[in-house]
Design brief:
alpha/beta; 5-stranded parallel β-sheet; two-stranded antiparallel sheet; 7 helices; 50% helix; 12% strand
Length: 218
């Protein structure tokens, strides 16, 4: 009986902590309202997701269409495609670039980042492998909170725009996965987990991470 009570308390505690982390992530990761193109961004970053037969999924196409719209409206002269590009048989980045070019975006306005095999990996790569003063991230609204949270906790100047469409098949399953992904990436941010692909040896010290936390709360 005591063991059952102990396990129950542990489970309840983990649930409460996870809910608290999700609230924290969503507070830090809120996107600012973008009403005009007076702010020029160094890059519009599209976070990758599934592609099928060299064509973007509905979710990815929505992200790309929003990024192209922002590009044509003058928010940036550059679009970065960040996704999983490590396999000749499955290349999100190439598919994303090809789609944008087909929509009229010049190839020389597109940067490819094939190391974005996860949300955390994409943002970490932006922080450590590129020298962007400010970034505008495009993804679905439910995913945007975590993306901006990671960037801001790494000390980056990031803002974001949610693409149209936030209700896809199996969306409830995605929302549940996102709940746990926010917990996972909060741990990644706190310990500054280094993805295997990172080429540079730059690191963000935990002290800077903690400083960013308090600067966001004040």
């Amino acid at each position: 009986m005591k063991l059952i009570k102990f396990i129950s308390r542990v489970i309840i505690s983990l649930i409460v902590i996870s809910i608290g982390i999700n609230i924290f992530v969503m507070l830090i990761g809120q996107g600012s309202k973008i009403s005009d193109n007076s702010t020029k961004y160094a890059a519009i970053v599209v976070l990758g997701c599934s592609v099928y037969n060299n064509s973007p999924s509905d979710m990815l196409q929505d992200r790309l269409d929003k990024a192209i719209e922002l590009y044509e409206s003058g928010y940036s002269d550059t679009i970065m495609m960040s996704g999983d590009g490590g396999d000749s048989y499955y290349d999100e980045v190439k598919t994303m670039k090809n789609y944008a070019v087909e929509q009229g975006v010049p190839e020389n306005s597109i940067i490819e980042d094939p190391d974005g095999f996860s949300t955390y990996a994409s943002i970490y790569s932006l922080k450590h492998n590129y020298d962007f003063e400010n970034i505008l991230i495009v993804t679905q609204p439910y995913h945007l909170y975590r993306s901006l949270f990671i960037g801001r906790m790494m000390g980056m100047n990031v803002n974001g725009v949610g693409s149209e469409g936030n209700d896809y098949p199996d969306q409830m399953e995605r929302e549940i996965r996102e709940f746990f992904a926010r917990v996972k990436d909060t741990i990644n941010v706190f310990f500054q987990t280094k993805p295997d692909y990172v080429q540079r040896e730059d690191s963000v010290f935990m002290g800077e991470c903690i400083s960013n936390i308090f600067s966001r709360l004040t």
